[in-house]
Design a protein that fits this description.
By secondary structure, the protein is mostly helical. The chain is built from 18 helices and two strands. The chain has a domain at 129-297. It has a two-stranded antiparallel ribbon.
């Protein structure tokens, strides 16, 4: 549309600025998660760099969003009500916590996640070209994965030159150690789940005539995920993809067409990464698949023991729980490696149902958006996360709430989506 009035030109400039700021804030939040391993980078010797980035982005962004008085979608409004009900129960459980100070910090984490849900969810309306957000998230993932790979290769090369222990260094466990535990994220499992949205956004960008750099970027992220050897992430990814296949099989024509194109690229990527995982490392002769399926299988027993012990603790007050941080105290300062069990022990069935109601509402909205191709990566990442937290204590991490904000904040003019609900 041709702009003929100064006011229209000014409004168009503000619209572009709003979209740029919205995308930048979301990227800053994702980047802050990926930098949580850089504990040595602190501001004033107190605050972690990633936390400062996240808080700064949210404060600036919140001011912009509320200054523009952007209307909130009815899905986000309902989601906020459900999330606030859960937050009220978390506040109640914080006072019942056997560790009051630590319980209060967990409540503050939960409150911060609600702020992310409100601010980011409200800002999604500013993003008119959603594929631009996906491309930016993908490129950020390529940058982080490339940096991780360069740092690891540089470190291992130095070790090889100084020790000459090729068999001990060129092996999957060593790469996992340096990629995850000594990498930017500080945890190989969390790195994998945070990187999932970048990988899936890249898959969503692939078209028949896509340029080679898109596949190259996806390959870089995929290799970095393989070297992290996260079994929980692998299981969650296959489980979420299986859900997509079932939806494609049972869905109507509109669903099948959109999801089918996305699945085709995803299957190509899966076969590529599976083939790479079967290649043995030089000198050690071990493949990533062998390491994940055989050598790390003994870790499953310890996790099952934690679940069993936590379940016994949960039964002591099954309805109302024992207060925040009760799981850590009962397990000797460990968590159960299962967010659902953690929630049951700390907040009881009431807390689990309140959170489950919110998560179910987000999931229902996500399934109704599956006709919209640009949102598929975010839906897929949400499904991966909901399965992933079955193996890790990840509920209070901002990542799930960021995904929920994007899905609830997205609005579609097609009335058929509302009819589907």
């Amino acid at each position: 549309m041709k702009l003929s009035k100064p006011k229209e030109i000014f409004d168009q400039i503000k619209l572009v600025q709003g979209e740029n700021l919205a995308i930048t804030a979301i990227l800053a939040l994702l980047l802050s998660l990926q930098l949580t391993g850089l504990l040595q980078f602190q501001v004033l010797g107190i605050f972690n760099l990633s936390a400062v980035m996240a808080v700064t982005a949210l404060i600036a962004f919140a001011g912009f969003v509320f200054a523009r008085n952007i209307p909130v979608s009815r899905y986000l409004s309902t989601g906020l009500v459900l999330a606030l009900l859960f937050l009220v129960w978390v506040w109640f459980e914080a006072f019942r916590s056997p560790l009051p100070v630590k319980g209060l910090t967990m409540f503050l984490l939960a409150a911060g996640n609600i702020i992310i849900l409100a601010v980011v969810g409200s800002s999604i309306k500013l993003i008119k070209d959603f594929s631009r957000l996906n491309k930016s998230v993908f490129l950020l993932g390529v940058l982080i994965a490339s940096l991780n790979l360069v740092l690891v290769i540089w470190t291992l090369w130095g070790l090889l030159l100084s020790t000459g222990n090729y068999e001990g260094i060129l092996s999957p466990p060593v790469f996992r150690y340096f990629m995850g535990e000594k990498g930017l994220a500080g945890d190989p499992n969390f790195y994998s789940i945070w990187m999932s949205i970048s990988l899936l956004c890249g898959v969503g960008l692939i078209k028949d005539s896509s340029k080679w750099w898109k596949w190259a970027g996806i390959f870089v992220i995929g290799v970095s995920l393989l070297l992290n050897s996260s079994r929980g992430f692998i299981v969650a990814s296959f489980g979420a993809t299986a859900v997509f296949v079932v939806i494609w099989f049972l869905g109507n024509k509109g669903f099948r067409k959109t999801v089918g194109v996305y699945l085709r690229q995803l299957i190509i990527l899966a076969f590529l990464l599976l083939s790479i995982s079967l290649i043995p490392f030089p000198y050690s002769g071990k493949s990533i698949a062998q390491y994940v399926l055989v050598e790390r299988s003994q870790e499953s027993q310890s996790r099952l023991q934690l679940w069993s012990q936590s379940w016994g603790e949960a039964k002591k007050n099954i309805w109302f729980g024992q207060g925040l941080r009760a799981t850590e105290l009962s397990l000797g300062w460990f968590d159960s490696h299962n967010s659902y069990i953690d929630l049951l022990v700390d907040t009881g069935i009431v807390g689990l149902l309140l959170w489950g109601t919110f998560a179910g509402f987000v999931l229902r909205r996500a399934l109704c958006l599956m006709k919209v191709g640009v949102v598929l990566p975010w839906i897929h990442s949400l499904l991966v996360t909901l399965i992933f937290i079955f193996f890790f204590s990840f509920l209070y991490n901002p990542f799930f709430w960021l995904l929920a904000a994007v899905i609830l904040g997205y609005t579609q003019k097609d009335d058929s989506l509302d009819a589907a609900e």
